[in-house]
Amino acid sequence: MITDTQIEAFYDTGYVVIPDIFGEPELEIMRSACDRLVVEAAELEGMVIHNGSQFVVERNPTHAEFPVQIKRVVWVGAAEPDLLKLGQSHQLTDIAGRIMDCDRLEHIINQVHFKLPNDGVFFPFHQDSRHRGYGTDNWKDANGRGSYVQIVTAIDRVTMENGPLLFIPGSCRNGHLDLPYDEQHATESPLFNPDDAVAVPMAPGTVAIFGPYTIHGSLPNTSTKSRRVFINGYAYPGANFRQYPGDGAGMLIDAR
Length: 256
Hints:
20% of the residues lie in helices and 27% in strands. The chain is α+β, with helices and mostly antiparallel strands. The chain has a single domain (4-240), classed as Sandwich (Jelly Rolls).
C-alpha cells in the first residue's frame, strides 16, 4: 500500500497522499454511518458519551439545515462497528505498520470529522504530538521517530472550497514544538509561517498520512458540499499511556 519512497517522504516532508485506498463499497459504508451519526448528534450537546462513542457538538441555531456544529465523533466504531472494522483493515494498518516498522499497533484514534456546508468548523494549525501528550507521562517516543501515524480518509471529495487539509511541508523535521492550541482561534507562533501551507484536495477513498510533528490544520467549509473525513491514529506499542474516551479505545491490533 505504501512504497519505500513514500515512507521517506513521510519522514522528510511530513505527509504522503495515496489515492484509491478505499473503493465505493467501503465509502458507502462510511457515508451511511455518517448520515446516522448526524441524526444522533442533533439530539446532543457538548462533549457526550453516546452509544459508546464521544460526540463533540455545539448548538448552531443560525443554521437551519444543520442545527448543531459537529466537531467530531471520537472512537466512532463503538457507535458504528463497521467503522471500527474499516479503521483496523489491512489497507490502513499495513501502511502504519510499514512506516513504523512494527507488527503490532495500538489503535487509539477512530474518528469522523464533519464539515457540513457553512457550519463554521475549522481546525487551527497544530501538531498531533501535543494531543498525544508528548513531553508528559502520557507518552514515550518508543521508536525514536515519533511513534505515531495518523491516516485521514476522504469520504467526500475534498476541494479547495470545502475545507481541505493544510500541511506545512518539512515541519516534521523540527520535532515537538509545543505549539499553543485553541480550537476557536488561529495558531500564532514564530516557529512556522502559515503562508507556507499546502492545501491537499482529495478524491473519495484517498488517504493523507502524516506523523505527530507535522504542522497541519484546515479552514471552514464555505461550499455547498459536505467534507467528511474518517481519521485513524496508530501508536507504536509502548508509546501511549493515556486512556482515550470511547468503549474499546486503545486496542492492540496486528499491523500486517
